[in-house]
Write a structure and sequence with these properties.
- It comes from Davidia involucrata.
- Its EC number is 2.3.3.8.
- The chain is α/β, with parallel strands linked by helices.
- It is built from five helices and three strands.
- It has one domain: Succinyl-CoA synthetase domains (Rossmann fold, 3-Layer(aba) Sandwich).
- It has a three-stranded parallel sheet with strand order 1-2-3, with helices on both faces.
């Protein structure tokens, strides 16, 4: 996160948090660490005008994605959340379009 938020330049940035569809990993549990890190870096994320895209599937993914949606509301950072129905390539395309449209 420190590298992604270094030297804010006024342009929007995108952070993609994603992975495959887990077989055994509790997605909600693994998101707890990510949520903690995003809360710790809230001011840097805002200064960098970061937009976050999350995509994950697997055990408890609905609960994990709900936690990420709630986090976006709590810290005031746009977080778009997707389950396994969305493709990583599609989400990356959205992130790129967001950055280029804002440039």
């Amino acid at each position: 996160i420190d590298c992604a938020t270094a030297d804010p330049d006024g342009h929007e940035r995108a952070l993609v948090i994603g992975g495959g569809i887990a077989n055994f990993t509790d997605v909600a549990a693994t998101f707890n660490g990510i949520i903690r890190a995003l809360k710790e870096k809230e001011s840097k994320l805002k200064a960098a005008r970061m937009r976050i895209y999350v995509r994950r599937g697997g055990p408890n993914y609905q609960r994990g994605l709900a936690k990420m949606r709630t986090l976006g509301d709590e810290i005031g950072i746009p977080i778009e959340v997707y389950g396994p129905e969305a493709t990583m390539t599609g989400i990356c395309k959205q992130a790129i379009e967001c950055i280029t449209a804002a440039a």
